Amino acid sequence: MKFKTFGCGAAVATSSMATELVKGKTITEALELTNRAVAEALDGLPPQKLHCSVLAEEAIKATISDYYVRLGIDPVPIVGCCMDCDACGMEH
What is the CATH topology of the domain spanning 9-88? Predict the structure, then answer.
């Protein structure tokens, strides 16, 4: 798994940790990743950087959603939404 992120050190660290946490997992297991698990795996984050762990969690879910879309499968029943926030208008 690879990722590309632009941002502060916390954004890079949480993105990297999220990918490490889902390596070797099934898609179902990867969908269980939470921002809290990412932050805990990094031994915590400053309160003003917790949003970076949320972005990392959402990036994993968006990647899985995109995978299903490319297979022609509706990701909503599996992921919970399409993770195409511009298209769906749901708040996450």
Answer: Sufe protein. Chain: A (3.90.1010)
